Amino acid sequence: MTSSRHPPLAARGDVADRLATDAWFKDHLGPVEAWPAPLRQQVEVLLNAAFPMFLLWGPSRAMIYNDAYRAVLGPKHPDALGRSFWAVWPEVRGQIEPVIDKAFAGEASFFEDLEVALHRAEASGPAWFTFSYSPIPMGEAIPGVLCVCVETTSAAIERAGRYESERTLLFLDRLTRATTSLASADAVMDMTTRMLGEQMAVAICAYADMDDDQDGFTIRGDWSAPGSPSIVGRYRLADFGKLAVENLRKGAPLVINDNRVEIAPAEAATFQAIGIGSTICMPLVRDGRLRALMAVHHAGPHVWTDRELALVREVTERSWAFVERVGAEADLRNSEEELRRITDAAPLLISYIDRDQRYRFVNQTYQTWFGRSPEALLGRSVEEVLGPSAYAGVATRLRAALAGEPMSFESQMAYPDGGQRDVHVDYVPRRAAAGEVVGVYAIISDITKRLTAERALAESETRLRLATEFAEVGLWDVEGGGGALYWDDRVRGLFGVPLDQPVSMADFYAGLHPEDLEATTLAYAAASDPALRALYDVEYRTIGASDGAVRWVAAKGRGLFDAEGRCMRVTGTAVDITARKAVEEARDLLMREVDHRARNSLAVIQSVVRLTDAPDVETFRSALQGRVEAMARAQTALAKSQWRGGSIGQVVRDELLSSVVAASRLHLSGDEVPLSAEQMQPLSMILHELATNAAKYGALSVTDGVVDVRWSGTPTGWSLSWQEHGGPPVAAPARTGFGSRLVRSLARQLDAEILFTWEAGGLGVDLRVAQRAVSEPDRLAGRLNDPFRGDGPLEPVESLWSASSDLVLGGMRPSTPYEVS
Questions:
Q1: Are residues 261 and 287 in the same domain?
Q2: Per the domain annotation, does 406 fall within a domain?
Q3: How much is the pLDDT for 778?
Q4: For residue 417, what pLDDT is reported?
Q5: How far is CA 519 from CA 514, 538, 544, in A?
Q6: SS3 739
Q7: Distance CA 155, CA 302 (A)
């Protein structure tokens, strides 16, 4: 009696090895040797694939997956093998079960970057996947579903991080614009706390000045969200706990996520009494002393992120730079008022220089600056007092003032201790009654503090610029929503516009790809519409004005509106995502290719199973197994090359050396002629049919017979010759069998001419293939010349296996004489 036990699975790897043993969960699927042929064949294809896949089979949704999917499972492998999908991933049942039920009902599904919550490595968290579920039909039923998937979690997290960075950069730009023109320190801090509080959605944002004792402090102003109290008033640092004192005095931020559990109850009570549950308090240290504080608070617990901490630190530095600059400018204005009155000694260097450039008057501050008495200064020349080097820097301006032109400039002067100070100098001509210039008033103010603040502000702005440069983020701005357009150098590059060329909104719309013009225009109109105030978040293509290059751009922005609802400007960022788009398109193409080939292979296998006939089970099994294994070998080779194709020599060796027992009876020769992915499987199946018949009826059916296989490239394609020697006599068959029709149909798949010759020594077959190109649109549309699926008027798959029983090739009707035609 013939055994029905199947041979081992035609696959290698960890999962395949486990399936070959008893060390896996069989309750739902049973042992491998008892599997139905379709399940077995689908699993072999799946195990040989390099892309993450799993198969769900039967009502229990039993799960078989390949080695590539193990990375998704993590520690759930190998226990997941053979178990119900819901036992492996119970946490996603509510989300995924309707999708799987649809697939078992015959409806395929595709999802891109779908977020799911998975429990992996004893932890739960969000994950993102792009995947498809495809039904696997078997006759009238659908016993299984194939899922092809790729995890996109890192890309999703990266996009979220990039969005947060863009949002932060836009906020800092708005903050700079909003505070630049403010005239007082209090106005700067009021604006800063409001904008920061709203940006971070906190309950309270406040700023405080420290006392000289480094303990007492006064919260001079705050912003509170609706329902939150104001905390303006006097406090002691010690009342807020040891951690607050230690961190803030040494210049480190105080970060508390939940004061009820992170600090002592008595210390937490101080926070709770003013409605604070969690806090970031950022110190401002100058000259080694704690000078001021800025803080944000939530009413309840909140886990602060590194981004939130960095934002508070940056805003604290920027705001105090603004405050110091405003304070310095106010000091300068007050000094100028004192100079105009000259009623008493002022904190300015005031002097009067006559027409001969000699000092006739100096005030007390001037004397102190140079450390000289009036007698040591009056009557001396400017060059003598300042020294040759300093005098050379002011001589031209001094002569111009003595000629009647008021002069105002900034320079540096040296203190007696040798230190350099920044000064602002005004030379005011003094005229006699007749109008002639008789001398110059020199008014000099120390602006070191102001310039230091401005340099700090410039450094902060430089950090912003560097951040946008390193993040490769471009900035754009439109006044009034449709007025003057500003593009930085990076955005100009995205539109192919020279750096020195003026731009307008017309240039923006002219640079858009025609297919993206309408959607982008509507998105911008919604962002600048006072009634909608939508977030401008679009992806579009540009066509470079100077280079014609097509680039993908991700743009984000928002309109800014005044109290009357008028759009004052629309501002935002733009990022070049051309490389990302190319990767996404390549990924999608690969997924469609894998899905298409899996479906196509399954359809062929099902047709072979349904239409193959034989006089007994063993003959049926042998014929069916041979053809399926030939397909599987070609599929395996394609999977290893990532569907890029192979060579004739590779296909010949893979097929013949695996199916012919005595390799010494094969004479193989030829160059490594390349094959496209579409040519490998038809050639493999042709060789299988020829080898099968040679073993049954031809040269390989006798002891001394040999087969000579030669191949070579031709100017227009390639050719392959099959010649048998030493076999039984052969003759042209009287009729065409199934195998012959199969071989000829496969040859047509190759666009090949095939010629059979019957000689006394054995069968000869010549295959000549003319290469033809497959266009990229055809490839993308899935119209590839796969086996049993041609672009031309080829026979339908079903016609190859008609109801007739005259099947010859592949081992059918063993009593029939050798028939290949």
A1: yes
A2: yes
A3: 44
A4: 55
A5: 10, 8, 19
A6: helix
A7: 26
- What tens digit of pLDDT does each residue of 143-192 get? 999 999 988 888 888 887 787 778 888 888 888 888 877 878 888 888 99
Q: Are residues 635 and 776 in the same domain?
A: yes
Question: Residues 6 or more apart from 13 whose CB is under 8 A from it?
Answer: 47, 66, 67
Q: For residue 802, report the phi and psi dihedrals to the nearest 5 degrees.
A: -80, 175
Average pLDDT over residues 4-29: 79
122-126, 169-173, 421-425, 539-543: which has the highest mean pLDDT? Answer: 539-543
Q: Both tokens of residue 113? A: 């970057």
Calpha distance 793→806 (Å, rounded): 24
Q: What distance in Å separates the CA atoms of residue 802 and residue 737, rounded to the nearest whole number?
A: 10
Q: How many C-beta atoms surround the C-beta of residue 310 within 10 A? A: 11
- Lowest average pLDDT, out of 202-206, 235-239, 410-414, goes to 410-414
The torsion of the CA quartet 649, 653, 654, 659, rounded to 10 degrees, works out to: 150
For the chain, the average pLDDT equals 82
Of 272, 251, 809, 163, the C-alpha closest to 537 is 163
Q: Which residue in this structure is represented by tokens 């209090």?
A: 186
Q: What is the DSSP secondary structure assignment for residue 660, as one 8-state letter?
A: -
| Residues ≥6 apart with Cβ < 8 Å to 404 | 429, 431, 437
* Residue 485 and residue 425 share a domain: no
Q: Starting at the earlier edge strand, list the strands of the sheet with 53-57.
A: 62-65, 53-57, 141-151, 123-138, 109-120
> According to the model, what pLDDT value does residue 764 have?
93
Task: Judge whether residue 731 has pLDDT over 70.
Answer: yes
Residue 49 lies in a domain: yes
Lookup: tokens for 319 = 């705001």
Type and span of the H or E element at 311 = helix 306-341
- Domain range for residue 445? 342-450
Q: Are residue 356 and residue 411 in the same domain, yes or no?
A: yes
pLDDT in tens, 400-420: 999 999 999 888 776 555 567
Domains in the chain: how many in total?
A: 5
Q: Report yes or no: 156 and 113 within 8 Å, Cβ to Cβ.
A: yes
User: Which pairs from 120-129 meet CB under 8 Å and 24+ separation?
Assistant: 120/73, 120/74, 120/75, 120/76, 121/74, 121/75, 122/75, 124/91, 126/153, 127/151, 127/153, 128/152, 128/153, 128/155, 128/156, 129/153
User: 317 and 348 in one domain?
Assistant: no
Contacts of 560 (CB under 8 A, 6+ apart): 174, 567, 568, 569, 570, 571
How much is the pLDDT for 83? 92
Q: Going edge to edge, which strands form the sheet with 216-224?
A: 233-236, 216-224, 204-210, 289-298, 278-286, 254-256
Task: Report the alpha-carbon distance of residue 776 to residue 572 in Å, rounded.
Answer: 37
Question: For residue 636, what are the contacts with CB-CB under 8 A and spacing of at least 6?
Answer: 10, 48
Place of tokens 């960890």: 14
260-281 per-position pLDDT tens digit: 999 999 999 999 999 999 999 9
The DSSP 8-state label assigned to residue 512 in this structure reads B
**Tokens in use for 290?**
């704690």
∠27-33-38 over CA atoms, to 5°?
A: 90
